[in-house]
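Appendix B, example 12.
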Amino acid sequence: AIAGAEWSKTLINDGKNPVTNGKNLGTGILKITTVPNQGVVNMMSSTNTAKASYTIVTDFATDCVSFQNIHTFSFGDTIGHINNVQVRKTCLDKIIIDKVMVSWTDPSAAQRVMKIDMNSSIYYDAYVEPSTGEPSEGANSDIVIDINNIVMTGTGYYTFNYFEFEYTVGNAPPPGTDFTITFYFGDGSSYNKLFDNYD
């Protein structure tokens, strides 16, 4: 089980999820479960004659990021943006963001997330669906978006230039709308950030 702890920490440090339901380890089987947002990794190893368990507490991606409150909002007739979403990476060798979810106060509203740009690279583009080459409808509120992996290696600041929304004329988010972005990391942890200054 102790060997599993080191293996788990190596994977998490590389941005990956260590969870396994039966990895062969020497003459035994290793099972690993995690409680990522509490930093807990549980290991249980078993052979024909013995069982051992071990728990460690370690940093996951959610412990190694913070968001700066410097974002801005811009909403026109049919296109809107949350601009300049800045994340600071403070630890681990690598952090991978592989999914995001954007939620807003009135989920019945007609806005849809259409594009996500970080450091001038597009990681989600509903205007060009990768599998078909055709546009998709985008993502409504509370829909998890599977994005191209964002890999953050060095410590420092990374900037989402914008989250782009599309809507019909007259359906821009009203002033006072709150937005929450949930970032899902490759190690199984996640981070919620409230953007509540749109007025």
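The CA atoms of residues 98 and 149 lie 5 Å apart. The mean pLDDT is 89.
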